[in-house]
Amino acid sequence: MVPDLSPDPAGALGDALDRALDGVPAGRLAPVVERLIRDYRSGSVPGAPILRTADDAAAYAAYRMPATHAAVLDVLERAAARLVAPSSLLDLGGGTGAAVWAAAGVWPELTAATVLEAAAPARALGQRLAGGAPSPLLRAARWEPAVLGTSTTLPAADLVTACYLLGELPGPVRDAVVDAAARAARVVVLVEPGTPAGHARILAARDRLLAAGLTVAAPCPHADACPVTGDDWCHFAVRVGRSSRHRVLKAGSLGHEDEKFSYVVAARGDAVTRAPGRIVRHPRTRKGLVTLRVCQADGTLRDTPVPRSRAELFRDARDAAWGDAWPPE
Hints:
With 329 residues, the protein is an alpha/beta fold. 38% of the residues lie in helices and 22% in strands. It is built from 10 helices and 13 strands. It has helices at 12-21, 26-41, 54-80, 98-106, 120-131, 136-140, 171-184, 196-211, 244-249, 311-319; strands spanning 4-5, 88-92, 112-116, 142-144, 157-163, 185-193, 215-218, 236-241, 256-267, 277-279, 284-286, 289-296, 301-307. Strands 1, 2, 3, 4, 5, 6, 7, 8 and 9 form a 9-stranded mixed beta sheet that branches. Strands 10, 11, 12 and 13 form a 4-stranded antiparallel beta sheet that branches. Helix 1 (12-21) packs across helix 5 and helix 3 crosses helix 5. The longest helix has 27 residues, at 54-80. The radius of gyration is 19 Å and the shape is globular.
């Protein structure tokens, strides 16, 4: 099953979006959403910020922010048990701030957050959304202009996030940003769309993080080559509730959508505890048997049958979800 999350467990992000966007006619934003979807799905690297106007930022926040937040929240929640809690966050290309909202919900220990974002309309809307948040971290977050390049240097932070960013950067800049994040942070979190191209970018970044001396904390239970090969690719999914505004803007009838993503979490130091294995596909269930496809600690991919005769493990397998650690810890 796909983990089922609302856009924000406490509803705070949804409330903030309502306050900021209720005065903007959906009819005005709908064609902007269509253009943004075309731009983001084109696969080409933009030559200028995609979010150029206030309506661009509003449309982006309305249709993308809840899904981005849900994906990053899922990643951070799975990583949190394997890492020492960070106290400072630097979010690269943070848009309207979805990653900071997610981090604030996972780590109350965070005391400082900075969002680097090139697009002024996105920074302005992100600040507006965060300004009324219940989290002191969000209200005090700093939003700074930044154009990332091959000579990028970053200030030190416990946690550096770059979510749905790498695909918007030219290859040399992408590599330089990953290297700069590895130098600046104790923990680096990278999230990309759950597509073959997104997975390929995550794998390339994972190699650079390992070469920089970091240890992979999630999702991989090992530091070997990814065993998901051929026409397959490693990705995960989270179910996101759609607001009425979201359904109108994307012309959707369902009350939810599944956001697919690929990711890597890497940390500096030896305090990382990896999962014993990771479920990388929906569990397959039939009477008396659950079969899990598990990425193993030895770097192999294995279909793991769990029969009813193994009563306790069978109960765990029935409750297991795509993306969970396996066996249960």
